[in-house]
Amino acid sequence: MNLSKMCTSYTSKTIARTSSLPPLSSPASSFSPLHSKSRVFIPSKHSSFSGNSISIAKRNLSTVAASRSDDGVCSSLLQGAEPFVRNVLASMETVYLNRNPTAKAILELVRSNDDDKIFYDHFAFRTFGVNGYGIDSMASFFLDYGYTPKEELRFPAKKLRALWFSPPSTSLPDGATGVNGPLPRIFISELLVDQMSPKTQEIIRKYTEISGRGNKHAVLASVLGSLTWEKPLYSEFQQLARESEYAAWTLVNGYALNHLTISTHQLKSNLRDIKSLNQFVEKNGFKLNSEGGILKVSPDGLLLQSSTVADSVPFCFSDGVTESVPCSYIEFAERLILPQYKNLPESEVKEYHRRDGFEVGNADKIFESTSSDQLTRRAA
To answer: What is the Cα–Cα distance from 125 to 188, expressed in whole angstroms?
Structure first.
């Protein structure tokens, strides 16, 4: 059986299971400790969300099935399109760095301290889970190019859910760094709009509806640094901020890159230890998110994360009011070696030997990087 027939066969079997979207297994992902108590995974067939339930399952499982490269059967869908995907990520990064001087300065500092070699752990986006503007609107691009949907995470108190996507494997030239290094994971969250107050729902629906088919061009909006809807009134921003700072952020930032994350364990210098990196960042005068402590640690102790506080930028609302609003931030993640591989020589350790995935408890606190409490807190 040739490769295309093998992929087609696998795809047809997979599509028969489109009523749910469990994590797809692979040799690499099966190493991960995916049963931590703080992680919440619920297949989409049990989802009660009416705003934008993971239509990815119906739309793109053929893509998902063909995207796995770990088993050596259905290789990456990237092939000749890899330069295009990397250019898209680079354009998102450029917009992000132009808008966020803290992130730009920290990346330059780390590069100068680590011989200009930085790998990204993940890119993160925020969305409105209504009118087709939720997770699927941004995810469709990545699914088309070989990314695989993994676990769903829920944040009941914030009325959010998220889904992360594993990148396809690629071969890297020597000296590859940044967006030209290993492709990052993608983390996309959405606000559960149907659970918000009628007033807040009305505002969000208003702007997503007047956007036309803007949800079909989420990646283009992110690359251009443009909203797909018109600028809101300041009073509408205030209404959303009172109820959900996540909602207010998304109203004025849209599909902009919410944050990118440096993979600290892949650095060369002493900064590969995230505690050392945190000290380095603070020593250089930057403020870190203190919610739940500077260092966020998963229950299994294998995923360590921290982040800066978001930059603020002036935003001119449609009624002529100009006010400062939160923009984006930069995150750091250290993924420790899984217990079963702790005796491997360091030179043999690969990314799949390390803790994969995300953690609800960590992510819940990282979300606070754009909160008013963190923005107004004095630096330590």
So the answer is: 5
Structure tokens at 138: 């941004």
**Amino acid found at 303:** L
Q: Name the one residue in this structure whose structure tokens are 């680079």.
A: 90
Identify any residues that bridge with 315 across adjacent strands, giving them in sequence order.
Answer: 323
| CA-to-CA separations, 243 to 66, 131, 135, 136, 249, in angstroms, rounded | 41, 20, 21, 24, 12
Which pLDDT tens digit goes with each residue over 281-300? 999 999 999 999 999 999 99
Residue 368 CB neighbours (<10 A): 21
185 CB neighbour count, 10 Å cutoff? 23
Backbone angles phi, psi at 82, to 5 degrees: -55, -45
List pLDDT tens digits, range 221-251: 999 999 999 999 999 999 999 999 999 999 9
Quote the pTM value. 0.82
DSSP characters over 308-358: BPPPEEEEE-TTS-EEEEE--EEEEEEEPBPGGGTTS-GGG--GGGB--S-
CA distances from 57 to 66, 77, 153 (A): 14, 18, 16
* Tokens describing residue 275: 């505690």
Half-sphere exposure of 50 (CA within 13 A, CB side): 3
Place of tokens 């807190």: 377
Q: Which residue has the tokens 């100068």?
A: 112
∠ CA 133-207-230, nearest 5°, is 115
Among the residues of the chain, which ranges form H helices? 3-15, 56-67, 82-99, 101-113, 135-144, 198-210, 218-224, 234-243, 245-253, 274-283, 360-366, 372-376
DSSP H or E stretch at residue 188: strand 185-191
Tokens representing 371 are 């909160």
Q: Helix (H, G, I), strand (E, B), or coil: what is residue 229? A: coil
| Separation of alpha carbons 260 and 307, rounded Å | 10
105 φ, ψ (degrees, to nearest 5): -65, -40
8 A C-beta contact, residue 77 and residue 66: yes
State whether the Cα torsion 107-112-114-118 is positive or negative.
positive
d(CA 14, CA 268): 41
